[in-house]
Structure formats: C-alpha cells, structure tokens
Specification:
Order of helices and strands: EHEHEHEHEHEHHHHE
Largest sheet: 7 strands, parallel
Helix content: 40-55%
Strand order of the largest sheet: 3-2-1-4-5-6-7
Distance between the termini: 36 Å
Shape: globular
CATH topology: Rossmann fold
Number of helices: 9
Radius of gyration: 17 Å
CATH architecture: 3-Layer(aba) Sandwich
Structural class: alpha/beta
Oligomer: single chain
Number of strands: 7
Length: about 260
Amino acid sequence: MTLDGKKVLVFGVLTEPSMGFQIAKSVMDRGGDVIVANAPGRPSSIMKRIVTRLPKAPVDCLEADITKDEDLAELAKSIGKHWEHLDGVVHAVAFAPADALGGNFMNTPFESVATAMSVSAFSLKGLTAHVLPLLEQAERASVVSLTFNATVAWPVYDWMGPVKAALESTNRYLARDLGAKGIRVNAVDSGPITTMAGKSIPGFESLAEAWPQRAPLGWDTSDASPVADTVAFLLGDDSRAITGQVLHVDGGFSAVGA
C-alpha cells in the first residue's frame, strides 16, 4: 500500500511512543507528506523537538487549541498556504481532567466532563469542519480518529468511556454527512499503549496488563505501530469503500470473553 502524494494533517503528535508520532511516521514511510499539529505551549514545544526523529521533516509544525474556532480557522489557513487540498486528517487528541478518571466516576463534576467531551469528542467535528474546504478539493479524502472500545465499562477509565462513545457516534454522523462529498470518516479502537496520555490515567497499568494475557494475537503495550499502520490503511485508497466504522486493532481482545 502506498500513500505517495497524499497530504495528511496529523493533530496530536507528541512523544515518540505517541499514537500521533507513530501515525505520522507510518504515513511518511508510505510516501505521504505530513503537517503536524498540537496544542499551544508544552505539547507544541515537545512536538517541535520530537519531529526531528521522523523519517523526514514535516511540511510544517502548527499549533492550535482544538476547542477554539479561531485557532482552527488559523490552522486551516496555514495548511492552505502549503497545500491546495488535504487528503487526510488524523485526530489523535484526548484529554480528561484528573477528577474524571481513576475511579471517581460518581463524584466527577460536570465541568470536568464537559472539558473531556470538548477536547476529546466534539473537537473531531470542529477540526473536520474547519478543514472541510481543503478535504473537498481532494479526489478521495479520509478522516480518522482514535478510540478505546466504548461498548463496555472499564476499570479506572471512568468518564473517558462515555466521551469515547460520543466520539464513536460523532464518527458515524460525520460519515453520514460527508459521504456525498466523497469523504470517508472512520475510527480505530486501539488496545492500550503506554503513551504519556495512557500513563496519566490512574491505574492504567492494571487495565493494560490483561491485554498480553487475553488477546489471541498477544499485545505489546509499548508498540503503537499496528495501530499506526491501520490508520495509514484508512488514509489510503485501498479503504475507499469503508466509512462510519470503528476498526478494532487490539490483538483480538474485543472478540473474546473472560
């Protein structure tokens, strides 16, 4: 599979083990060009240092608060200075305040839930809407987000579970509305990966340790490349008839019972 000539925005590149970084690498390895982006401040500062480890230099390193329309409008304008169209968008963004995680489900205030929902779910619509004019100029465009199986309740994951359910539903509605424009919208359900975001969840290690034991294919919590390669597939033309789906990349964990 090749992504030669594909122009892709990856929002959420952080440290080298991060999903965003590994996805950017997978796209580049297949011949695609990438613009990376992250939030202003520390995330953007880390991103600008870490992209030197990618196979080639990204076309640009941009920063934007994904919850602010004015930032996303500037992001789209900056992308348009480099490219006349956009073949792919990757939403690799998730955040919840500490009091929305770690067994505090019954006590989490709405303000914290709203923050998690805004950053991790509604932002998929916001980002897609602002770059839509560029996506419409592509022959086949694709939007891909990252989720964690929202069909069941997990220990310690708490309000990120409902938030991911909202993300998966948003994925389906975007697929419904954008299909007529030839734009595909899909999500990838990843098994747990030891990233900075994962490690910020209290009790993450106890949640993740079940995967290598129960997944039929096994699971390496330090290796995001299987997820990144699946995202690359969804960005390419080989997935041209797939939209509105959540693809499970978890070693088969979601297919088996206790």
